[in-house]
Design brief:
This protein has helices at about 10-20, 30-55, 80-85, 95-105, 145-155, 170-180, 200-205; strands at about 65-70, 90, 115, 130-135, 155-165, 210-220, 225-230, 235-240. With about 240 residues, the chain is of the alpha/beta class. Strand 4, helix 5 (about 145-155) and strand 5 (about 155-165) form a beta-alpha-beta unit. It has an eight-stranded mixed sheet. It has one domain: 3-Layer(aba) Sandwich (Rossmann fold). The relative contact order is 0.15. The model is unreliable at about 1-5 (pLDDT under 50).
Length: about 240
């Protein structure tokens, strides 16, 4: 599945998500929560992209001429929108099943995406204008090595956007106990002890020569669904640049 030298991929986590690959693009399937979460994440990313690259918000392809890397891309839920925003996109994932589904979904739409089944530390790509990794770092072994790998792929004037659940009582209640027990998220998806607090993530990023310039929470309510919020207790997004 990956080279023996890989140190950040957790084989159990890769197998878990690989087993869900065929269902990834079904908005009512096992990844339904990601489908509901994706528009909110994309809105946050669009604002960060416009600000960083000095783009007009009405521009349809703000990433035209730029290279984007999505690490832990799954079946391409983020890669495909990034292509439509104009980027030349590479997607990495630990599960070969995910890469196969991602290629099969992108091909008929004429979307050219460089999908690879490889770990970040085995990837030799450099100087990406945009590096993303959403809901991934809580599933890896050696988070510092993972962040170091992300940093090495980013251009000096590039932009990085990450998201991850916070390690709080609320996230344990909603994301682990409630969501998994009621079938909203497949059993075994989350391990609360692996969640990372904003302070912990910032220390990892700082150690890799990166700087957090914005942090926003992702909140959830039955009526409104997911929304951007100042409350970081459930899940959060960060915008990152090189220090």
């Amino acid at each position: 599945m990956t080279k023996a030298s890989s140190s950040t991929i957790n084989p159990g986590e890769a197998a878990h998500f690989g087993a869900l690959a065929a269902d990834w693009w079904d908005p009512k399937g096992s990844s339904a929560m990601l489908h509901r979460l994706n528009p909110v994440r994309l809105a946050y990313m669009r604002d960060a992209i416009d600000l960083h690259f000095h783009c007009d918000s009405s521009r349809l392809r703000p990433l035209a001429g730029k290279r984007a890397l999505d690490v832990g891309c799954g079946a391409g839920l983020l890669c495909e929108p990034l292509v439509r925003l104009g980027a030349s996109v590479t997607g990495l994932d630990a599960a070969p099943e995910n890469i196969a589904v991602a290629k099969a979904h992108a091909g008929p739409q004429g979307l050219e995406i460089d999908y690879r089944n490889t770990a970040i530390e085995d990837f030799e790509g450099k100087d990406f204008d945009l590096v993303t990794s959403l809901e991934v770092i809580e599933h890896v072994d050696a988070p510092q090595a993972f962040v170091n790998g992300l940093a090495q792929c980013m251009a000096d004037d590039g932009l990085m956007i990450l998201s991850t659940p916070n390690r709080t009582a609320l996230s344990k209640l909603l994301l682990v106990e409630l969501a998994e027990r009621t079938g909203q998220i497949p059993r075994g998806t989350h391990h609360h002890e692996q969640f990372i607090t904003p302070d912990e993530l910032e220390k990892l990023l700082n150690a890799a020569g990166l700087q957090v310039i914005d942090t926003r929470g992702l909140s959830y309510g039955p009526a409104r669904g997911f929304t951007l919020s100042d409350n970081l207790s459930l899940n959060y997004l960060v915008t990152v640049v090189k220090a």
